[in-house]
Task: structure prediction
Amino acid sequence: MDEAGTTAAVQRYLDELAGVQGDSPAGPVIRELLGRSVNRLSLLCAALLHRSYPRLTQPPLNLRSEELLSAVVERLLKALRKTRPESVRQFFGLANQHIRWELNDLAQRLDEKAPVTEFIEGLVPAPMSSASGISFDGRRMLEAIENLPEEEREVFSLIRIQGMTHVEAAEITSVSSKTIQRRLNRSLILLSKSLADLRPSDGLPDEL
Amino acid sequence: MTAEDRIQELLEEIMEAQCTPEQACATCPELLPEVRKRWNHLQCVEHQVGLFFPTSTRNADTDPVGGSEVTRLPQIDGYDVQSVLGRGGMGVVYRARHLKLNRTVALKMLLSGAYADLHELARFQREAEAVAGLNHPNIVQIHDVGELDGKPYFTMEFVEGQSLAEALAGMPQPARPTAEFVATLARAVQVAHEGGIIHRDLKPANVLLAMAGMPKIADFGLARRFESDAELTMSGARIGTPSYMAPEQAAGQTSLIGPSADIYALGAILYEMLTGRPPFRAETAIETQRQVVTDEPVSPSRLNPKVPRDLETICLKCLHKEPLRRYATAAALADDLQRFLRKEPVLARRVSVFERARKWTNRHRALTTAMISSVLLAIFLLSAGWWMMLDQAVTTHAVQQDFQDVVRAEGRSSWPEARMALARANARLGDRQATALRDSLQQYERELNFVEKLEAIRLDRLNPEIEGDKFVRAVGEYESAFGETAFFDMRQPPSVVAAKIRATSIAPAVVVALDDWACCARDKARRDELFEVARQVDGDEISSRMFDPELWTNREVLTKYVQDAPIDDRSVQLLIYMGERLRSLEGDPAPLFKRLQQAYPSDFHVNLMLALAVHKNGNPWEGMRFYQAAIAIRPTIAVPHSNLGAALTEVGRMEDALEQFGIAMRLEPKSYDYRFNYALALRRLERNVEAIRELRLIPEDAPRYAVAVALIGRCLVSLNRGEEANIESRRALALNPQIWEAHRALRDGLVQLNQLEEARTAWQQTIALQPPDHSTWDGYAELCMYLGHSDEYRRARGLLLSRFGDSTDPPMAERAGRACLFMPLSDDELQPAATLIDRALAADPIRYRGVMPYYRFAKSLAEYRAGRLDKARALLDSETLKVLGPAPILLFAMIHHRQGESEVARQALEAAVARFDWDPAKANNREAWMYHILRREADKMIPPGGPVSEAK
Result:
């Protein structure tokens, strides 16, 4: 896709959606964009499934990401078609948000493997602590992304979720590539801060 | 600007300029440690983000975290670094030449950022030195440790050849060479372990194959240290997998990582060589880690049918999840492999059918849950009203998880934990209409109640306070417990009962109880029947020798049998019982329990039994150790706390003992024995008021109620409340006239109230009830004499001499001897009394310095009775005249009178009389009675002189 033309094409399409009926030359562009969002979502869902829940992909369940995804993707498409974004930026903002929500939903449903750790307060004494290893979970990360400041979240989503290049992201948000890089960096710093409790334990005990 | 802002800025700078934390912090070194920590973590998060949100390839060039590693070769003094051999997450390995020695070495340099600070560096140095001390042909030799620009490095033997990982390439190897190979590795690992070095990261990639395939283990002890958090990030990908990691290591229980982790890894290597794949390998490290911790490995023979059964057994023993169940040492593993190679029977035991079944069930349950979830998921995906479904699904799932926790906790005999999980499930279910789940919940609850009851029966037998035949009692309790349960009807044929037991979640605990019951049973038919049920549940045979009736009743035969009886999972319960039986036959079960404890160091019962055995053998110190071990394993069981309290009492640590008795009491508030012990401990600490308060809480129907009342009496005596004390003591005696404590309390109370005649009667009772114990006797003779019962005095004197004539304890010898001298006596009686006193005088003069004057007085009295007046007189030195109130002066007077110095005698008598308050109301102790006795004798002998005399 011609990167420089994307924004203009999408904008034109959006204008048409708002006013004019009927097919327009921008149609294929927007379809491709939607397709790209959807593909990206499939990819991320698959990553989530295989990273965190590989057990479900093995016999006897043989869960395939495609089976899971059709419904999720369907919903995303519907949501993106229904809402009428006014700007290109808004369009991708919505896409990002929906992808995050869908991922979160999926993770929640797949989360059957997480050991039950919550306790009903007052009913039982606290259990012995069981130090676990390094284990990031997708939902925590999604939550942390959701809590990023607006600008950082936008850039993070465009690049890490939508999989755009820095140039594309810069064009959509009308800032320089350098700013994109800076925001992306900052988003990582903030993420690592809010995920600080997932920091791996500091080394082994002293004995050899 | 706050430090936090500054740190953030520095992190941004590092990312933007792609520099190192050291460079970024050049102007603010104080922030370096924190920045470095945060940078490492940031990289870790970045890596994780990358896993979930892969960067599109188009951005590769702008990826902020990229390998910007310097490629130029480092310059190190004394070495000519020639080329890069390899790169890993923790550093780079170079081929280098030691210039002076002109030998080729491998030089491993750790990357900056991989270590944290100088302290870490120093630790690295220490470890490397330790490893350098290892000299073994199968261990890659470390030559030198150093540091270049803050980057630590070490040089090691250069091994030309490939690693085992490369050589294997997924191909199964023939069994015998593999066994030989792993035995060689195990011997090398043993040498390292003996040097206190644990590898922590044994894996095929760390086993190098030198010339002729000779294995050499690399990276001893050093690797893990620096990879712990760097491995995820530095090279962007995790190096290595947890495939060879022991479960305790994978679960991050760093405190448990010991030599057994290396034994596990050796097993994993053996596994991979036999089957062509490691025991666990999943698509992701996290998943592999999970499998390592929770799954059982697939038997090697299923992957490669050519794997011999014994070798498979050895391999699986290494891979046991419990570190303690693996080989105790690498040498033991090597030995067993040698046994296999020599075609001898190996020591490793196969997992019993039953244990396998249990493992399978656990797996199966997890699987079931997964399937349920997936079905729910499918429904959810299709359904429109998915919200409700989801809600229910989540609850159902959580409750299923709780049930799994229950089963897991039961597997560990951790009843409180199982209860906790049940409570959780119950709260989760709330008032939901989930009939099936609710039924399961109730079933679990019933099972748990039952199994707790069974264990209580077993523990009950350890309670030293229970009277009568404990085994008979246990049989009765088992009969009624099994009779009441609805799970199975013991009257049905064994196969039916066994099948029903197997269907419960508590089968292992029931088998233990069945074995125990069978052991206690006197009736052989019953016993065989119970064993049969247990055998059918368990599917395992027990040596038929164990059922030989002679074994159960003959101490010598039993002692000999247990001496070298084989110990394995199935027999351990029976052996525990045999130990108990041995004790009841007055044999010494300690060696057996020691052996069991070595095999099952984390078994609660084994530790408790060993503690009891050594404690009973008169070693409270060692007993305490194992009581504590038992408590550490099962902190919520009262028996070991109470026994630990008893042991602490024996060694004089009263306060600590009180605490343990208190814990036992709180753990089982309904068992009044523990409350009684607690009260007793309070009394020993002279906290009589508190003791009385506890004792009053013991209800009338408690078995030891009467004793408790008697003890209240004794406490009241100590509080000088004789009247109240006597009421309690008499009440206790009315309940049970055989209670020694009550007689004694009554005696003391009466003495305190100066009702001496009654006291003497009570005292007689006390003596009649109590086996030889000098403290019971002490003072009785004096009281008889004081009260003028000279016949009873003579009788008491005879008994004293016959009972305590051999006493070697100086105070006791002196008391007993002296008590015999208050009336003239025949030589036959005088001789043993004098001997007793001589024995006291022969005691260590330093230790008994303070009481020597008392002993000299007694000796003087003995000499006086023997008619050796000069000797008697000489013994009454100035020190002696100062002790025992008027007694020495009275003796002094009588000696002088007999020597014809009447005036001196008379004056001495007067002085003695003036020295003491002769009010009979105050004569309520042994010494006062003695003074009165001596004075009467002196008064009779020495005629009254002047008006000063008060003689009656």
